[in-house]
Q: What sequence folds into this?
């Protein structure tokens, strides 16, 4: 008996024509709701076997973009292919080969864990349905809960069930919309190990997240803000490109200090970070000059490499929210 | 994998899922049984009660012992409350009927005794306010029975030859205000159609809008399932529900309301699913238009009202103006009523009800086609 994973691999191996073609290759994808542009000319290219992180503040259009990729929404403009299939004309064929995990739980709360998976398996006409379900339950640690109604699962377990459901049919591309929201650290680590494992076998994963540690686990990242793709690349590239200088400040009464620093020229952001503050700016000289009066006891200033979070908060502040 | 055409396995997946969900949804399931029971009780008993002691006046132009024993027997039957202070002229009697203070006026003609004894079968005139047909039917039946037996004692001995084969006196009933004289028997079989319309349209209308509201539609849309598979997969399980309702009504009709069942119940059971499918398809189509469950309920009512009013359930179909008849003829209930009444009450056969079957099929196909066109395959 071949496992679902085995089948996926076989499918990928057989697929010589698209072997080296990008899995997602779209240009100028645009979507508007009621005249408001929610995704604005986004270009995206994701290679096979890549784990691609999709970041951006709430309402930046991540979910909308992912829905367009799997054919649930029709783009107003843009062209391209997903899994070698035309984004506009072959929506249905795309759906069959994509595992899409919705941001909001979209399985049936009044069916049990097993019944939900069984329903999905029947829709995809999986061979050896029972065995495939058993294995998936096992892999995601859901076996003991298979008779529980999905609606009575805790949030994290719901996420795992949703993940199980979208992987059941051995898709070639996973589109995961905040799959680890509300999942405990151990389960998140397991999840990422699985994802890396799958990617190593040639599965491509596009994953939206708000967690910085997860962003750092992706091969490449894209940052979307209010419909615009601001930057993309590896974590290191993005940090480098932002050219942000960051200082860590320790000392007493930091909140008062933060308020004073925020209004200074050259300081783009001041963020509380653990027991200290992160003070960043794009122009090192100006930053230095402006903060000079505060560089004395009882405060201790140490230069620190900018983290993803510093960069993303910086990016978020650059683009005015076109909604508010 | 076959992705472009209807596939039985995907259809079956939807059916299975619906069944499980239906089984778990106790409330809805209870309503499906509760609604027919409540309607039967409300409509059935309210209309079918056998009203007694109805105000009656007797205009007697003959005061013979025969006339008196008839009046006495009417009193004893409990249907009639014979007023001694009643009207004395035809005109007064008519006014009382108009006002509704009297339900019946019995006119005993002059020379009643003489004609009776001669075997001339004198005619008794019973004027009835039949605006409420249920109030009249049983009483009229009662008086007919009386006529057959009331004078049995009087016609002994030398008068034995007058012992009725046909009753010795003729009863002419004038049903005023409701020439069709529909009886309560009509109501209960009709209720079957009304109940199915009310519950089935709403059930499927809610079943799909619920998917949209709970977010499960997003999952369903991202799967290979086809619109037709979803639509039919949601219709079939509720046919079973429809059958449960039909059985509830049939049992009640038989054992509670004593509706005669002249025709073939299996024939009725064989034709009923067409009607059920019509209503379920309306529900599915409603749900492709409605954005939430509230809208779905409102639109179901929007369909239910004309069905109730124009189908011939509430008002005699033939009495309606032509435009209303034309409108009514589109509705499946209009065709199901003659089928269920025809089979149960008149013993109609398939050949006789066939003219009502194909309009329902036509309706079904048209509504399904509309639903398929409207079914959103994306979240746009
Ligand atoms: N069906 C819709 N109709 C109208 N507006 C919509 C619709 N779906 C999304 N939007 C709008 O599009 C914008 C982007 O929404 P989207 O859900 O794509 O954001 P997101 O990046 O996924 O946010 P989050 O991180 O909160 O999940 C929002 O302003 C939202 O209000
Ligand atoms: Mg989202």
A:
């Amino acid at each position: 008996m071949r496992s679902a994973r085995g089948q996926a691999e076989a499918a990928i191996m057989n697929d010589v024509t698209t072997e080296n073609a990008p899995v997602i290759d779209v240009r100028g994808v645009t979507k508007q709701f009621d005249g408001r542009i929610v995704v604005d000319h986004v270009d995206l290219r994701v290679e096979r076997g890549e784990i691609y992180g999709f970041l951006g503040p709430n309402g930046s259009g991540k979910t909308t973009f992912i829905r367009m990729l799997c054919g649930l929404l029709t783009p107003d403009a843009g062209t391209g292919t997903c899994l070698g299939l035309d984004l506009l004309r072959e929506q249905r064929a795309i759906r069959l080969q994509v595992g899409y995990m919705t941001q909001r739980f979209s399985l049936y709360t009044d069916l049990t864990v097993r019944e939900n998976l069984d329903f999905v398996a029947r829709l995809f006409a999986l061979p050896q349905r029972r065995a495939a379900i058993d294995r998936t339950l096992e892999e995601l640690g859901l076996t003991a809960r298979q008779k529980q109604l999905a609606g009575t699962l805790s949030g994290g377990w719901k996420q795992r069930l949703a993940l199980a459901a979208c992987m059941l049919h051995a898709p070639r591309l996973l589109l995961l919309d905040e799959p680890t929201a509300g999942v405990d650290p151990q389960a998140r680590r397991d999840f990422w190990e699985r994802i890396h494992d799958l990617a190593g076998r040639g599965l491509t994963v596009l994953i939206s997240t708000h967690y910085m540690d997860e962003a750092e686990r992706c091969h490449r990242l894209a940052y979307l803000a209010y419909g615009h793709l601001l930057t993309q690349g590896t974590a290191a590239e993005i940090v480098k490109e932002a050219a942000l200088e960051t200082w860590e400040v320790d000392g007493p009464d930091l909140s008062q200090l933060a308020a004073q620093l925020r209004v200074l020229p050259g300081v783009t952001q001041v963020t509380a970070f653990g027991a200290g503050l992160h003070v960043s700016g794009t122009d090192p000289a100006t930053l230095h000059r402006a903060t000079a009066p505060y560089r004395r006891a009882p405060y201790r200033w140490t230069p620190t490499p900018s983290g993803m979070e510093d960069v993303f908060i910086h990016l978020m502040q650059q683009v005015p929210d076109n909604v508010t | 994998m076959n992705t472009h055409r209807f596939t039985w396995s995907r259809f079956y997946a939807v059916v299975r899922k619906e069944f499980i969900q239906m089984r778990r949804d106790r409330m809805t399931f209870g309503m499906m049984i509760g609604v027919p029971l409540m309607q039967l009780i409300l409509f059935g008993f309210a209309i079918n009660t056998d009203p007694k002691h109805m105000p009656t006046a007797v205009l007697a132009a003959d005061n013979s012992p025969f006339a008196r024993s008839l009046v006495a027997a009417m009193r004893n039957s409990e249907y009639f409350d014979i007023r001694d202070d009643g009207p004395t002229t035809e005109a007064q009697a008519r006014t009382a009927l108009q006002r509704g203070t009297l339900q019946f006026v019995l006119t005993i003609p002059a020379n009643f005794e003489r004609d009776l004894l001669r075997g001339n079968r004198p005619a008794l005139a019973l004027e009835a306010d039949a605006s409420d047909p249920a109030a009249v039917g049983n009483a009229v039946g009662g008086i007919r029975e009386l006529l057959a037996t009331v004078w049995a004692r009087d016609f002994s001995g030398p008068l034995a030859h007058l012992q009725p084969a046909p009753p010795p006196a003729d009863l002419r009933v004038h049903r005023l205000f409701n020439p069709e004289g529909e009886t309560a028997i009509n109501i209960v079989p009709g209720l079957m159609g009304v109940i199915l319309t009310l519950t089935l349209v709403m059930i499927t209308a809610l079943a799909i809008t619920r998917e949209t509201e709970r977010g499960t539609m997003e999952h369903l849309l991202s799967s290979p399932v086809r619109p037709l598979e979803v639509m039919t997969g949601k219709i079939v399980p509720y046919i079973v529900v429809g059958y449960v309702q039909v059985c509830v009504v049939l049992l009640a009709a038989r054992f509670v309301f004593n509706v005669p069942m002249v025709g073939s119940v299996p024939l009725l059971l064989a034709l009923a699913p067409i009607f059920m499918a019509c209503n379920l398809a309306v529900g599915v189509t409603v749900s492709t238009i409605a954005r939430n469950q509230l809208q779905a309920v409102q639109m179901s009512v929007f369909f239910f009202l004309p069905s109730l009013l124009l189908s011939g359930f509430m008002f005699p179909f033939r009495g309606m103006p032509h435009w209303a008849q034309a409108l009514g003829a589109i509705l499946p209930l209009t065709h199901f009523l003659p089928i269920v009444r025809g089979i149960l009450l008149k013993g109609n056969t398939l050949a006789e009800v066939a003219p009502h079957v194909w309009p329902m099929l036509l309706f079904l196909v048209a509504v399904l086609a509309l639903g398929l066109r409207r079914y959103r395959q994306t979240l746009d």
About this structure: The CA atoms of residues 11 and 172 of chain A lie 8 Å apart. The two ends of chain A are 56 Å apart (CA to CA).
